[in-house]
């Protein structure tokens, strides 16, 4: 079934939305290998880290850097607010000192990018038609009087081990003091050794103390073939970037989150606001297998306060999994996390279908999920673009996830509203 318009009734907030700032574009244009921006016959191509193998890259145009383009996308899909972030959030292609300076400049650019141009009036930036749908939008507009519908995750100077962690925490402190930035997008690579690196403890302490959300976003380069003779995990034959994109990125996120859990970071910093891209990747589906394997390792078992499944209830997830069954499953798995607290019920049955217990678990899980689109990746196909000359095409990448949210029969309007925008509105201070 095709979706031709928004089906959201309450607030709709996009927490997974990308942009490239001028300094980042300048740095990438200087490079010849991914991540880079190359130009052929006047057409620029963005190749992200995952495009180091057979990936063709993305046509690089205003949708990647122009604020008005982002606002038009939001209006077309009735998205009330967005939290934008740079894709590929690692600066490891720069020397340490340059990475620290680049993060500072990119954050300044993000800060000004979020704000409407001085000449723009409220009505231009926030069309009243968007807010005619209901009380939630009216209240939102009242709460955001300057029409600032866009916030951003800042960038941290994640490059390599030579970057002092104090440079990372001081950047997060600067983000905390800014007007439009809300937390940071985190590379799974950390300072070259991943997110369970002991050197990152001050970052977790700082993020928890300042209540700054951290968005864990993958790169996909770890599974890319290293040469034409090396098929890597996903092979080379005809799949192009598809398998690294579909499977590699989510596995990378799942591994990063599992490393945070088993290293005890979520025990030491239980109030961290970590958001996992792509619905946590494979983590929800594999969480009982992870728990089983941990149960066989005395060292890890002794280190953790709870069964690993408990920690899923401390995490946030974007709702970017493209299917209602997958979304429902992930929400239910996160919603049962409380059962895995140490001293919990042990062996238990799933809640009876339609029972109050089932609904309570679904609501608990839904409180941890946030709508996202991954715009401007996955643009409309050429056939979709030519359907209507009167209006810009609906991006199926956005509407598919919205449709999935509304197609989960076990969700009530309450759960749908939580995931569509209510959770994000609270988490990012829109309300
Ligand atoms: Zn993304």
Explain how this protein is built.
The protein is α/β, with parallel strands linked by helices and 431 residues long. It has a single domain, classed as Alpha-Beta Barrel (TIM Barrel). Helix content is 39%, strand content 11%. It has helices spanning 22-29, 67-76, 96-114, 122-125, 135-143, 165-177, 201-210, 242-262, 265-268, 283-295, 298-303, 324-335, 356-366, 382-385, 396-406, 413-427, and strands spanning 13-18, 36-40, 43-47, 58-59, 81-85, 150-155, 181-187, 214-217, 274-276, 316-318, 369-370. The strands form two sheets. An eight-stranded parallel beta sheet has the order 1-5-6-7-8-9-10-11. Helix 7 (201-210) links the parallel strand 7 (181-187) and strand 8. Helix 3 packs parallel to helix 6, helix 6 (165-177) runs parallel beside helix 7 and helix 12 (324-335) packs across helix 13 (356-366). The protein is globular and about 60 Å long. The model is unreliable at 1-8 and 120-133 (pLDDT under 50). Residues 16, 18, 87, 217, 277, 374 line the site of zinc ion (ZN). Residues 166-336 form the Amidohydrolase-related domain. Pfam families: Amidohydro_2.
């Amino acid at each position: 079934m095709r979706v031709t318009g928004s089906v959201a009734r309450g607030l709709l907030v996009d927490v997974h939305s990308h942009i490239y700032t001028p300094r980042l574009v300048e740095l990438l244009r200087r490079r010849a290998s991914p991540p880079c921006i190359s130009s052929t016959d006047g057409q620029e191509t963005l190749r992200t880290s995952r495009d180091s193998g057979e990936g063709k890259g993305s046509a690089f145009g205003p949708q990647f850097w122009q604020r008005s383009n982002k606002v038009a996308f939001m209006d077309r899909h009735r998205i009330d607010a967005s939290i934008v972030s740079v894709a590929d959030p690692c600066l490891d292609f720069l020397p340490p000192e340059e990475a620290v300076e680049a993060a500072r400049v990119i954050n300044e650019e993000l800060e000004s990018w979020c704000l409407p141009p001085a000449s723009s009036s409220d009505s231009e930036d926030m069309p009243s038609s968007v807010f005619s749908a209901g009380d939630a939008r009216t209240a939102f507009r009242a709460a955001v009087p300057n029409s600032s519908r866009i916030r951003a995750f800042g960038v941290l100077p994640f490059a390599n081990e030579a970057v002092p962690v104090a440079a990372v925490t001081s950047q997060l402190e600067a983000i905390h003091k800014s007007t439009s930035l809300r937390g940071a997008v985190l590379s799974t690579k950390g300072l070259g050794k991943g997110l369970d690196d002991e050197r990152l403890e001050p970052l977790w302490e700082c993020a928890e103390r300042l209540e700054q959300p951290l968005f864990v976003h993958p790169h996909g380069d770890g599974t890319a073939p290293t040469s034409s003779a090396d098929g890597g995990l996903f092979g080379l034959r005809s799949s192009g970037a598809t398998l690294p994109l579909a499977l590699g990125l989510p596995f990378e996120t799942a591994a990063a989150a599992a490393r945070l859990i088993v290293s005890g970071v979520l025990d030491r910093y239980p109030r961290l606001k970590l958001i996992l891209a792509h619905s946590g990747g494979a983590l929800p589906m594999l969480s009982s297998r992870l728990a089983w394997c941990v149960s066989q390792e005395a060292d890890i078992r002794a280190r953790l306060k709870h069964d690993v499944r408990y920690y899923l209830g401390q995490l946030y997830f974007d709702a970017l999994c493209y299917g209602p069954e997958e979304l429902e499953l992930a929400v239910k798995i996160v919603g049962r996390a409380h059962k895995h607290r140490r001293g919990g019920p042990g062996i238990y049955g799933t809640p009876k279908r339609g029972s109050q217990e089932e609904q309570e678990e679904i609501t608990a899980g839904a409180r941890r999920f946030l709508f996202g689109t991954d715009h401007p990746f996955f643009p409309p196909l050429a056939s979709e673009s030519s359907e209507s000359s009167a209006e810009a095409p609906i991006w199926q990448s956005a509407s598919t996830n919205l449709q999935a949210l509304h197609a989960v029969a076990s969700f009530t309007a309450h759960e749908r509203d939580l995931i569509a925008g209510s959770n994000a509105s609270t988490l990012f201070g829109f309300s």
